Automatic annotation (TrEMBL):
<keyword id="KW-0285">Flavoprotein</keyword>
<protein>
    <submittedName>
        <fullName>FMN-linked oxidoreductase</fullName>
    </submittedName>
</protein>
<keyword id="KW-0560">Oxidoreductase</keyword>
<dbReference type="GO" id="GO:0006397">
    <property type="term" value="P:mRNA processing"/>
</dbReference>
<dbReference type="Pfam" id="PF01207">
    <property type="entry name" value="Dus"/>
</dbReference>
<dbReference type="GO" id="GO:0017150">
    <property type="term" value="F:tRNA dihydrouridine synthase activity"/>
</dbReference>
<keyword id="KW-0819">tRNA processing</keyword>
<keyword id="KW-0507">mRNA processing</keyword>
<dbReference type="InterPro" id="IPR018517">
    <property type="entry name" value="tRNA_hU_synthase_CS"/>
</dbReference>
<dbReference type="GO" id="GO:0005737">
    <property type="term" value="C:cytoplasm"/>
</dbReference>
<dbReference type="InterPro" id="IPR052582">
    <property type="entry name" value="tRNA-DUS-like"/>
</dbReference>
<dbReference type="GO" id="GO:0050660">
    <property type="term" value="F:flavin adenine dinucleotide binding"/>
</dbReference>
<feature type="domain" description="DUS-like FMN-binding">
    <location>
        <begin position="46"/>
        <end position="283"/>
    </location>
</feature>
<dbReference type="InterPro" id="IPR035587">
    <property type="entry name" value="DUS-like_FMN-bd"/>
</dbReference>
<feature type="region of interest" description="Disordered">
    <location>
        <begin position="1"/>
        <end position="37"/>
    </location>
</feature>
<dbReference type="InterPro" id="IPR013785">
    <property type="entry name" value="Aldolase_TIM"/>
</dbReference>
<keyword id="KW-0288">FMN</keyword>
Length: 418
């Protein structure tokens, strides 16, 4: 097991991203793997989602054009004491405890991966941040989860009622990690706008965060109630220019993001449920078909990455598309097979597909890496919405395998972390 980060200096770009945080607020200045600027204020991000926002979903969201992707919330005590393992074949990094995976990620997503932490304790938060920062682009504090287990323990939306503790946790995280690793937090609105404004000012005044995501609902509000986007404009103004504000709530894709940016003046938008239903929703032309494109691609990628079947099955069961290519009967047959299968192989047999049908995940991963590198190189600093990688934007729904060759830099990175 190893928690020591590889010793490569941050790039000049990485240094640029951390200038907003004064050095007296930041932690040790150890070097790390090559970091790129973290564009919180550009494009559309994938929201943190327990169970649904796992590694294959995040990779496909990035391929479709998501700028940044959040991990599902992981509680501080879960990450503390984990062993870090790297699969020498695929490069997959797993934080594991008591033989159970706590968090799984891939070096391909690392420059755009934000780790979301659940915590009610500054010391534990700092300890967890120190362990995980080596493998992620940034660290986010969950201050919005309204679930009983979270609030009861003083975490999630519980922190909205104790802003001093919330700020103390942010300060502790900031002080525990190098300045090139940005910190953010995700909140819900409070019932009163005045209280919300005072809360966000207090958070911004800590000088510890680069980004604030605002889920435009209050903790008791259900997801079926419309997000209160009309309240965000004042919040953006009161936070000022130093902190990027990201809107969250009711965005369903590229076009809807454009409208939300205009209405709220937020710098970027974050999507949860629409991406849970179809992670290709980030594409400017709308999501690709679930059965003929997304599901085979997801299964191939997940199988190559050795992603555990139970989570793959759960995610596949959520996928849908607005205008399904298969008829109603065909869709039902696919869903029935997913529900009945106990393994990747069983699913292939239930679908009646040939032996090699689930092969090709390695090429899909290489294609995603290739697309992200191309996007990174061409990323316009002043762009509002990012565009998907060329691999996906030029593909038809029937060409599910991206022929891009493995990237030698990726191969070297994988070798470096093993
Ligand atoms: C399945 C699921 C899991 C979620 N898990 C988290 C989580 O781990 N952390 C968090 O801050 N929010 C979580 N959320 C809330 C979303 O990130 C988001 O704030 C909310 O769904 C509103 O966005 P939407 O209207 O795009 O769905 C979750 C939502 C869903 C649907």
């Amino acid at each position: 097991m190893r928690h020591t980060p590889p010793t490569r200096s941050p790039t000049p770009d990485a240094k640029r991203t951390c200038t907003e945080i004064p050095s007296d607020k930041a932690g040790p200045s150890t070097s790390s793997w090559t970091r790129h600027p973290v564009h919180y204020g550009k494009g559309i991000h994938l929201a943190p989602m327990v169970r649904s926002g796992t590694m294959p979903t995040r990779l496909l969201a990035l391929e479709a054009g998501a700028e940044l992707v959040w991990t599902p919330e992981t509680v501080d005590r879960a990450i503390i004491g984990c062993e870090r393992r790297v699969d020498p074949k695929t490069g997959v990094i797993t934080y594991i405890k008591s033989h159970k995976p706590v968090l799984t990620l891939h070096p391909v997503e690392r420059p755009r991966l934000i780790f979301q932490l659940g915590s009610a304790n500054p010391d534990l938060a700092a300890e967890a941040a120190k362990i995980i920062y080596q493998d992620v682009a940034g660290i986010d504090l969950n201050c919005g989860c309204p679930k009983h287990f979270s609030v009861h323990a003083g975490m999630g939306a519980g922190l909205l009622l104790d802003p001093d503790k919330l700020c103390a946790i942010l300060q502790a995280i900031r002080a525990s990690i190098p300045p090139e690793v940005p910190v953010s937090c995700k909140i819900r609105m409070l019932p009163s706008q005045e209280d919300t404004l005072s809360l966000v000012r207090q958070i911004a005044d800590t000088g510890t965060i680069n980004c604030l995501t605002v889920h435009c609902r209050t903790p008791p509000m259900r997801d079926r109630e419309p997000a209160m986007k009309h309240r965000l404009k004042d919040i953006v103004q009161s936070v000022g220019k130093k902190v990027v504000v990201v809107e969250n709530g009711d965005c369903v894709g590229y076009e809807s993001a454009q409208q939300i940016l205009q209405q709220t003046t937020a710098r970027a938008v974050m999507i949860a449920r629409a991406a849970e239903a179809n992670p290709t929703c980030f594409l400017p032309d709308g999501p690709k078909d679930a059965e003929t494109y997304l599901i085979p691609r997801y299964v191939r990628l997940a199988k190559y990455l050795d992603h555990h079947w139970s989570n793959t099955k759960f995610c596949l069961a959520q996928f849908t598309s607005p205008d399904p290519h298969l008829g109603k009967h065909g869709r039902l047959e696919w869903k029935k097979a997913i529900n009945g299968a106990k393994s990747y192989e069983e699913l292939r047999l239930l679908w009646g597909k040939e032996a090699g049908f689930f092969e090709g995940g390695e090429e899909i991963l290489a294609g995603i890496q290739h697309a992200l590198r191309a996007r990174g190189r061409s990323a316009p600093e002043l762009g509002v919405l990012s565009t998907p990688g060329p691999a996906l934007s030029q593909q038809s729904a029937s060409s599910v395998i991206d022929p891009a060759p493995p990237d030698p830099i990726l191969v070297r990175e994988i070798q470096a972390v093993v």
